[in-house]
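Researcher: I'm comparing several assemblies side by side, and this is the next one on my list. It has 683 residues spread over three chains. Same procedure as the others: predict the full complex and return the structure.
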Amino acid sequence: MADEMKMRATLQGDVADVKVLMTHVMETGLRKDSKTEKFIPAHFIDHVVATLNGKTVLDAQWGIAVAKNPFINFKIKGAKPGDKIALNASDNLGTQYSGETTVAAK
Amino acid sequence: MNKFRRAFLKTAGAAGALLATAGVGLLKSGEVFAATWNKLAFSSNNMNDAMKNANYGGAVESKDIVLKAPDIAENGAVVPVEVTSNIPGTTSIALFVEKNQYPMVADFELPSGTEPYISTRIKMSQTSNVRVAVRAGGKNYTQVKEVKVTIGGCGG
Amino acid sequence: MTAGKPYLVWPVVLFGALSVLSACATRPEAEKTRMAPLELEKPASAAPWVRYKGWPSEMWNEYSTLAVAVPSTLSDPIKFDGPITGDPKNGEKLAFDRSRGGGCVACHVMGNPIPPLPGNTGPDLSEYASWGRSDEFTFNYIYDHRKIKPDSMMQPWGAHKLYSANEIKDMVAFLKTQKSPAKFKDNLENPNTRPVPVETRDNFDPFLNEAMAAVEKGKGLFSKEGAGKKSCASCHTDPGSAFKAWAASMPKHEPRLNKVIGVEEFVTRHARATTGEEYLMQSGGNLALSIYLRFLANGQPINVNTASAEHKQAIKRGTALLNRKIGQLDMSCADCHTAERGANKWIRGQWLGEFRGQIDHFPTWRTSRSEIWDITKRLQWCNVSVRANELWPGAPEYGDIELTISALNNGMKLSVPGIRH
């Protein structure tokens, strides 16, 4: 899944600064194909869950207005080098995406 | 409830409605409601309804929410938005774009241990207020900023 | 065949890539400074050229392009007896309409209320009614300004069929309603007080600039073996030092092709002649290698040759092309990108930069499109934006323009991949 999700977690004090870049079209369903004049069906990530060593640290619901190739940045307290941060996402068509990174010391 | 269960429920879709119902039976109802994609809020087509349906009704303006977004966005497809809540006990942060056809953008639940902060990039169909809603200690707060979406010179 | 011989077309065709690349490891040190092997026969881009998917499909065959100057017939001014009557409401609608070339508000402040984010490359027309111009003058200036003020940036809206004579009469009627100074909602709406955009993003942050992934991809392709079991790295064993400044010296005149080529076309032709890999211009692989090779030269001042006879000629041609009015909108590159004309002003909500500052970051990530664009694609887009047919990516005109703009940017440091709207 390396191509679909890029993750990095860097430690600032005991706070892990987590950045995630996902590859996804985030199609709104409101756009028309310029050739066929038909609406392009909606296709977007609607759930995102992040965990730190298995414990949920972020639980998000998304709609169609999160930008293409979604980016999120969040911060987790009490992290230490070597901690595992995992991210699981799923889209409205049921496709699952996952990524994992290890907290790096600054 | 883990996300796989949730994905199962969701992707069961119309044809799999019975399966989904069977799945529900295994869980406490409260967990199901908390975890199901909030279709009502995401498909609300005005700001007030979207906020109310996302359980952010009656939010009070608060200067303790810092909403960073550009004054003028270079395009509406990728507008960077960063939110920091300085309200103690913040448990969730949600984003709305007033003039989008469906104003609700995202809702982030942040368990204790996660800083009351989120940064992401959103879509805006036109110049609009961007509104953030925060739940803290069971109460709702909000902050707003207008973001102008640049109009190109060469026409459409 | 050795690297020292003149690169005629036939040996490349006859012996193909393998004989060329087998030479690289063994050729004498002195010969390495001579001409790099290039495939010279085939087009370097998709042929026949077809415009990119998702771009406007309209063709503007009757108007000038960068390759062909079509003589434009100037309209004789039309005479009117007395005032022109028209529908000011419709005139206002047309003035604000972005679908036929951007509308008047792209360049002029006007309207009551003024539409969002007007431009200021042309004069503020909010008090035009008091300028004392006759209706006949106004009509003809909009219809075809070229007989009245040939050096204007204005478009010949009537003569180039963007608006009918009756529609222009409605615009004249609308302009006669413009009687009071512009009122703006805030200083962002006023193009004279709107802050100039400053690029502060870290273009090397891979979470911000998705084109950073192309650096890694390009690095990978550099070591990818072609059919002959050779990769770029087989000959260029230390790319970091070998290409420390090379990209900053491109584009260059290539005598074997008799035109100026940039990094992108060089990659296509050199790979064909060495590893045998096919990296057509505008392909993902070509963009990745081009970004990688420029990335290796980041921080180096742009340093294109402006002294050689070939380059002097190319810059002369390029300068003429930058000043050629093209397309249905009848605009030159210089109209928007020189300080004497439109640069450092707003075209609607978009800031127009000067030529200096326009090249150090290409290929660049375009956030509005989620795509990597090289300089050629950017030039093609400018062409289509002024409603002129674009040329194919390997067109010699683009080489001349790239060299000319690069010469204007000499001394600026490369910072690739960039990030822009």
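Model: For your comparison table: Residues 46-149 of chain B form a domain with the Immunoglobulin-like fold (CATH 2.60.40.2470).
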